[in-house]
Each structure stands twice: as C-alpha cells, then as structure tokens.
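Most newcomers find our protein records easier to grasp once they have seen one. Each record describes a single protein and holds just a pair of labelled lines. A learned vocabulary of local backbone shapes supplies the integers on the structure line. Nothing more is needed to start thinking about how sequence determines fold. The record below serves as our worked example for the rest of this section.
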Amino acid sequence: LQTIRAEKLPGFYRVSLGKNDFSRLLYQEDHSGQCGGSGFLSVNLKGSVSSALRWGFTMVGTISPSLKFEEAYGFFDVDMDLSGTLSFDGRGELGILGRLGSQRLFDKHISDFAWAHPGIVEFKPNMNVDMNLRGASNIDGKFDLQLRAGSSGVVRTHAPPSVDTFTGDVINASPNGAFSGTVSGQRTDKTDSLGTLFGVSMFLRTWMEVSVFGLGTSSKVGNAEFSVVIPHDIDVKRGTSGGIEVIDGDQQVISEAYSSGISSTWEDDKSAHVVGVHGTPHIVYSGAGGEPPDRGPPKFPGDSLFNGNYMSCSKATVITCLNSTSLFGLFPSDYFVDLDNGQRIEGRGLLWERTGNSRPYNVRTPSGQPFVIHSPPYPNGGNGAGLLVANPNAGRYNLADSEDCENTDFTENGDPAATYIPEHSVELGWMPELLEYFMTGVGRTHDGRTVRSSEPIVPEGIINGGFFMMPWGQWDAGGPHTNMAITPLDEMWRAMGSVNNPGPLVNAEALFNQFKQRMWRGQSPMADTTWRANDLDNTTPVAGPTRAQEAISIIRMGISVFSHVNNNHVNGNIAGVINDFDDILDRFDSALARNGAAITNSRNMMLESFYQVVMPRLETGESWVLERIQRMRRNWQTARHKNTQPIGTYRYLKI
C-alpha cells in the first residue's frame, strides 16, 4: 500500500470534488424601519471550493457464510482549497452569545460519484463546509474580505494507523489587499476576553464513506469514514491598542479514520490526528476602523443559512473609547517624562532592572541655600513583574474596559500587553514640598493661592542637616528611639514605598500614571495647547467623529484618576502613608520638645499641606473634566443644528 501511495501516478488517477462560483447568503436581518436606519445585517460568502482525492483500499477475507476480513488496508489523501469573498454589511447590536449550531454551507454534500462492488462494498467521497457565526457587539460595517483556506499539498489519512504516517499542513495564505471597506464597533459581551465584534468559523471537510454489506443484501455489516478537516477563522475584533483588527487564518489540519465492523486493527485508532503546524493569523486590517457611509440595508435573494433574530437597533449613545496605547500619539514626546526627575516613563518599568533608581529632589530654604534629598530605590522591571515579585498585591492597574466610555472603573487585573510602571500611591514629589512647608509655613495651590500654616515653622537648621536627617538613636537616646539607626526623613521615605517596604506601591498603566502625577501637581491632564494642536474640538463631518472619540477618551482617562484613587486598595495605601507620616511626625515633635530643640507641630503641618494644598490640586482635575464636557456638548449641539446632512442623524446621535 505504501508503494502504491508513493508512486507518482498520472493526473487521471486523481479525482476531484468541487463547486465553482457559488454564492451563499449566510445571514440576513432587517429591522431598519423600526430602528431609524440601524438594526440590519447581511453576510454573504461567494467563491469556489475543491478537493482533489487519491485513495486506495485492499481487503482480503471471506464473504460467505459471513463477512470476515483477514487483512484490510486503506488510504485517503486529500488536497482541499477554498477561495472566496466574505461580504458584511450591517449596523446595529449583534447578539450571538457563543457560537450558533453549525450549518452546512451546501444543502447537499458535494458527492459527484461513488464506486461499488454490488452487494459487497461501496466507496463514496463527500465534501462540504460547516459554518459558524459569533459575535456580541454594537457594530457598523460594510466590507469585503478575500480569503484563502485549505491544505498545503496533500493531507494523508489511513488505516490501520501503523501502516504509515499521518501528515499534512494548512496553506496559511492570504490574498494581497484582502480587506476593503470600513468597520467600527464596541463589544457588548464583557466575558469575551478576545474582544470579538463579529466572527466566522468554517470547517472545510472531505471524507470517504466506506460501507460493507452482507452478501447479496442491503444491510450494512461494517463501515468506516476517512476524513480530513481544516478549520478556518475570521475575526473582527478590538485590538490591544484599542483599534480595529480583522484577522484571517487557517487553524490546524485534523486527520481521522473511524471504523466499525471491518477490522479490529482499524478500530484501534480511536482519536483524531492533529498534524502540521498551526496557521499564522493574518492581520489583514489594523487601524481606527472608520465609519461606513449612511446607507440602507442590502437585499440578497433567497433564504439565509442561519435564521434567528440576532440583530437589533443600535444603542444610540454608544461611542467606543480608545485605550491608552492608542492615545500616546496625541501627546508631545516631552509629556512622557517623570515630572520629578525628567526620566521617560515608557522605559522606566520595562527594563529588567531589579530596582528603580533613587531620585534626587531639590528643596528650597528660607535662607536661599537649597539642599538635595534622595528617595529610596523601589522594586522595578519586567513591565510590572519586578514589583509583583516583591509585592504580590501590586496588581496591574488599568481601566476595566477601555472601550466603554461610560465605564471609568479600574481593575488590578489590567491587560498585560499594556505598559506598566511602579506607582507611589502618594507621589514622591510631595516630600520636598512638605519640607519647604515645614520651614516656611507657606504653600501654594494650583491657582497660585497662598496657604499659610496655623503652626509655628520648623527651624531650617533642624530640617537641613539637623535632627530630621540624623538617625533617631543619635539625638533621642533617652527616648523611645534609642536603638533606631534610621533618620526621620528616611522613615518617611520608606513609608511612601521602597525596596524595603513595597506594600504602598502598585503597578499603574503608564499614561494613566502621568495623568495622576500631573493632577497631583494641579496641572490639567492635557494642556490646552496640546488639545488645540490635536484639533479635538473639530466637529466637521469628516474629521469630527474621530476627534470626538479621541477627546472623550482623554476626558474619560482624567475621570478615571478619581476611580483609581478611590479604589479600596489604592485608597488604603494613601491612608496608610498619611497615618505613618502622622505617627513619625508626632514622635518627631515629641522628641524635639523632649530634647529642648524646638516646640513644633510638624504633624499638623503635614495634614494642612495634604488637605489644603494637595487635595485642592487633585480637585482641579474634576473642574477640567466638567469644563471639557460642557465645551464638547456646546460644540456638537451647534454642529448638529448647522449641519443638516453631512454625516447623518445616526452618527450625530452617537456623538
């Protein structure tokens, strides 16, 4: 059998099954009359499919008085190919949760011929394509996808399994310029971690039916099925960058021989054989997606393969937000630097350095002689992995659903593909400000307003090089700090988070971390000049919707800072740092009084600085958000009244 199989026989020893120029309506639904222009979907597949076959069987035994084969061998070699175009035209809310039951692409199997020894054995090859649809999303798309599916050469199936090797591979090909059209959308099934908006699965299948009959009867006494299956998937989804991706690709060849009543050696093979390599997904489109033009529902003749009410009216208020990776390009390069030390934040958490560097901070003094303090190093590296080793509760804090503009919730289980850096829940930059407040009794809010302490100042000599920077045990030997080698300053640094105390640290998504850092300093998340440079107030028919999507995404990120700060874990970290400061400074004030150095209330001054300077700065973020929302609302209301046609009522309602 192996010798026959290996011979390079002339082409006429091969036969083919196939269907050329087919066109099949997969799904069609139209509620546009009740949905104001949405609520329709048509999906169609057209093309050609073929399967070239080579096969051979040998069976030796007796047929009377009963059928008994002493030897039985068989092979079935298949080379399958499908070339076609998938056409999608729909707008509305798609609701196929999970996969539908599969349906055959062709009502009758492609089976043009059969061979038989009358009354003894029959061989009949068949071919078909099993189809599945899936997706749960608000989607608006009109596109064509050219596709190619099948095997790369011959897939080999045989019985018994010991006779040869099961081999084969997928063609793993995609036509040039495979995707044309536009599509946008937002998933509605939050349990779908893949972010699928719409998907099609097809299973190319060719099989040989072998039937053995009782002598002179039509009763089957044995049967076998040799089959080759090639799964192929098409996915329209939200990519990790927040844009649209259209992915097309073969999966992996499945070769199987099933038998009953012919030979026990055939029946020993009870499993399918997955052969070859898994196909490489082809990203045939990656980008913002775009909005199709206003249009009515298409009409294809005939009945659709799938039936059911899976398409309904669009949610008029839905607009998809972009995630942080997609927003990076809206900011100037100097935006992504640590406001405390000028280091680029994009690289800070990615490097496999086990610790983040100590950072220098300048502190101004009443005497005009500034000095420098240094924060301690902290766990770092591996895009958050370094901190997670030191603090398993550090998480990866990011938006819970980057696509849903109405959802500002944060999760500690963020997308691992995003960029994360270690974040101090209480920003390190507050420390030099706090020391300046101790020495001067004066702080300034974001708007330049002066905050004056109700407490006496802490003398400069106690802070700069004095007791504050000396180990406790050196100057308060008679107090509770006799054996403490740490300084009050270093004890406060450690409370904020360090290698020796990683508990107050969390991993935060990089752009969000920059928003929080700016708002902690009283700065808006995006400067007005940057807003104008990106033309985010544009309301024109062509550019307006895209600019609105970007603007709303920026505003939503600003709102999320408050969601993050109010997260139970993060808020607990902030409270823990403030409570530690309270304890350290209370002990510091008592030690100064005990040693006759000064009468101070640095503990209360710290609380003044936090509640009267830092908190009002954070609250400016809320004012910025409200101002931007109100301005966008005014701009788009004006545009809606001025423009009676350009992009249609449907698109304006979404904005």
